[in-house]
Design brief:
Number of helices: 4
Order of helices and strands: HEEEEEEHHH
Helix content: 25-40%
Number of strands: 6
Strand order of the largest sheet: 1-2-3
Structural class: alpha+beta
Oligomer: single chain
CATH architecture: Orthogonal Bundle
């Protein structure tokens, strides 16, 4: 059972180069053992230098888990886009799609 949506999504990707750091953080490990950015789809990214490696929307510091939590609490996509104008509808839809695939 996944403890966070980010962990579920990254586990779903099932890529050998992904390394679990915590329940909500996954990054690629390079040959030297350092962690590097992982792009997921067109709009999501896991970067160890942004938000402690939580999955965020590319070009932002908005965690995917936060947006999905608001959606689960009943907020609409339109409300979220007004709250975070740096997000786009396709980006939020990609997060929803990836989360639903991980269930």
């Amino acid at each position: 059972m996944c403890l966070s949506t980010s962990a579920c999504i990254a586990t779903m990707l099932n890529r050998n180069e992904l390394v679990r750091i915590s329940n909500s953080t996954l990054v690629e490990e390079s040959e030297g053992g350092t962690m590097r950015k992982v792009e997921i789809g067109d709009y999501l990214v896991i970067d160890p230098e942004i938000c402690h490696g939580q999955m965020t929307f590319k070009g932002t510091r908005v965690p995917v888990d936060t947006v999905l939590t608001f959606l689960a609490k009943g907020y609409s996509v339109d409300q979220l886009l007004r709250s975070w104008p740096e997000l786009t509808r396709p980006a939020v839809e990609e997060a929803i799609s990836l989360a639903s695939q991980s269930l």
